[in-house]
Amino acid sequence: MFDRDPEGTMSDFPYADRFPVHRTLPEQGRPREDLLAELTAMAAEEDAVWESGKISGTMYCGDHEHYAYLTEAFAKFAHVNALQRDMCPSQTKFEGEIIAMVLDLMHAEAVTGTRPGGLVTSGGTGSILHAILAYREYAAATRGISAAAGRLPNLVKPETAHPAFDKACHLFGIENRTVPVDPATTLVDPAVVAAAIDDNTIAIVGSAGNYPYGTIDPIAELGRIALDRGAGLHVDGCLGGFILPFGEELGYPVPAFDFRVPGVTSISADTHKYGYAFKGSSVVVFSDKAIRNAQYFHQVGWSGGKYMSPGMDGSRSGGLLAATWASMVHLGRDGYRAYARDIFATAEAMMATVRSHPELRIMGAPTFCFSFTSDAFDIYHVADFMKPRGWRFNGQQYPNAIHLAVTRPQTKACVLEAFSADLAEAVAYAREQQAAGRLAHSGAIYGGVIGGLTSEVEAVMTMIMDGMLDTQQSLPPARA
Ligand SMILES: Cc1ncc(COP(=O)(O)O)c(C=O)c1O
């Protein structure tokens, strides 16, 4: 993911040694077959990385037949703009049915007195941003909470809730009230949340499960608080929304986190994670569509005509809606349950392996996605040892921990065997390194394990982001 890798394992100029680099639009277009050959070579190499089954999260389905089927569905509507419904009634069917299916999965039948509704967005962050914008607009309209009225809206979120909530506060002018979690359970304490709420709190947040530890916040207690204080409660089910319901059906200890819980007013669930659809899709559902509708946008006085959009995007891909719908309807409850059965069983087995080492400690009580740390040594020594063996864990901090969101590529028996063998050696290595007083190289960065980023964060961030976006523009002409 990061071009500027302190360990030098990633290239600044990927593929420049093998394929032409384009820094200007070619005067003569290149033949399709040449370009498809290049794309095929890059995709095959990159697929081989996750096909090993040693990558946390990221590739949720990992089944090329499923991807080929989704590609077919996508291709039929890839050129379609889902904004223009007069031309494509299919999109009304796809989007409406995706929303209905997610509402059903989240037990919207339990909602009384209001009409539930949803939105299809571009990903987990998109769903969270839309939800928080909706709460801001709804609170302004119904409770008079707005900066203009001298009442700065605020959001109360556990420290473990995804940074997309911080991003929402940053973008939408909302005060971010982040509260700590219990270090032993990794869960937010409802009393701490209650204490942070005031008259300007538009919503509170709980995760099912959270990204760092995969644990589920006490949604029922948060729901009671939300109802009592008149605030919304967003449950972030981006990660868990499409797998926890099936874990519950399979008998795993999954507490209710959906609309069966009084006080829950919105839930995000990512179709592009355990929904096994293509990247670029997620769903956010609301117990009351009046909240969703508060963020609808119109500009009816524009010279280009009367403009309206249901969310922050303008044009949207008809292909993604078709592929998302195709994934859900093809797999059905039975398919999702079968995948969940394998994933939960693999995660249980991996956690048993971790627990077999007295120096390692699982954080909280997770199910399909877990983190572990060590009180005996710096856990990043374990990451250092596992990395050259192909393992790609996510590094965490406060305390240092490594995280594994178990997905289908890990459900092969050989992956579990490799995990057991490599972890045993990694623990021995970590003990030695610690005893010798050596520092670990790995560090904590979202989406990977990488060193550095402890100080001068703005400068380091700019270097990393520029590395992703700009490097190819500065490629020396001789290599172009
Ligand atoms: C719990 C949770 N919420 C939100 C997100 C953000 O999702 P996305 O990366 O699709 O924007 C993630 C991503 O992993 C997540 O795990």
Outline:
One of its GO terms (cellular component) is membrane. The strands form 4 sheets. A 7-stranded mixed sheet has the order 1-7-6-5-4-2-3, with helices on both faces. The protein has helices at 32-51, 64-77, 89-105, 124-143, 163-172, 190-196, 219-229, 244-249, 289-293, 318-355, 380-386, 413-435, 457-469; strands spanning 117-121, 154-158, 175-179, 201-207, 232-237, 266-269, 282-286, 297-299, 307-309, 360-362, 369-374, 394-396, 401-405, 444-445, 448-449.
Task: Note down, in words, how this protein is organized.
One of its GO terms (biological process) is carboxylic acid metabolic process. Keywords: Endoplasmic reticulum, Lipid metabolism, Lyase, Membrane, Pyridoxal phosphate, Sphingolipid metabolism, Transmembrane, Transmembrane helix. The modification N6-(pyridoxal phosphate)lysine is found at residue 273. This protein has 480 residues and is α/β, with parallel strands linked by helices. It has two domains: 32-43 and 52-61 and 334-462, Aspartate Aminotransferase, domain 1, CATH 3.90.1150.10; 89-328, 3-Layer(aba) Sandwich (Aspartate Aminotransferase, domain 2), CATH 3.40.640. 40% of the residues lie in helices and 13% in strands. The protein has 13 helices and 15 strands. The chain has helices spanning 32-51, 64-77, 89-105, 124-143, 163-172, 190-196, 219-229, 244-249, 289-293, 318-355, 380-386, 413-435, 457-469; strands spanning 117-121, 154-158, 175-179, 201-207, 232-237, 266-269, 282-286, 297-299, 307-309, 360-362, 369-374, 394-396, 401-405, 444-445, 448-449. Strands 1-7-6-5-4-2-3 form a seven-stranded mixed beta sheet, sandwiched between helices. Strands 10-11-13-12 form a four-stranded antiparallel beta sheet, with helices on one face. Helix 2 runs antiparallel to helix 10 (318-355), helix 4 packs across helix 5 and helix 11 (380-386) crosses helix 12. The protein is globular. The two termini are 23 Å apart. The relative contact order is 0.14. Mean pLDDT is 93; it is low at 1-8.
